[in-house]
Fold:
Amino acid sequence: MSMKHETLVTAPPAFDSAEFRRTLGRFPTGVAIVTARTPQGQPLGMTVSSFNSVSLNPPLILWSLSLQSSAREIFEQIEHYAVHVLAAGQAGLARQFALPGRASRFEGVAWRPNEHGVPILESGHAAWFECYNRSRYPEGDHMILVGEVEHCGHTCAMPLVFHAGGFHLTPGHDDNGT
Structure:
């Protein structure tokens, strides 16, 4: 099956980017930390809320990264990364990995390298996916990354939720994710 990608000319939106962002914020998402190793061998990590499943066979996930991100060129080069779905009590960790400056993000965070040297967080997250960096697609002001899952696992922890510009606990559970 062949799919042709066409860019259609459309009318400008009847809203500004701030209104679009507020409207998107009404959809609750999970929160994840993506980790990788730079070509120089340094650990790299960032908080994302754009994680989603794509396919069961083959096992594929996706997430997106701003084209303005200082990590974009690294993710265009590397072969492997990991996605850690955060648990309800991990808002502090999400904030830490959202801070500017790559080196300080791992400060005080326990992790181990996987077989490809990718940092795997040992922090009680809800789920994790170790991925081959299968595809990258620039679209709008982001790059969509598709990962082929090589290893995955989960715990019984409830997920951290991002909604309306803030982190929230999963309804019915305390801040420890229980």
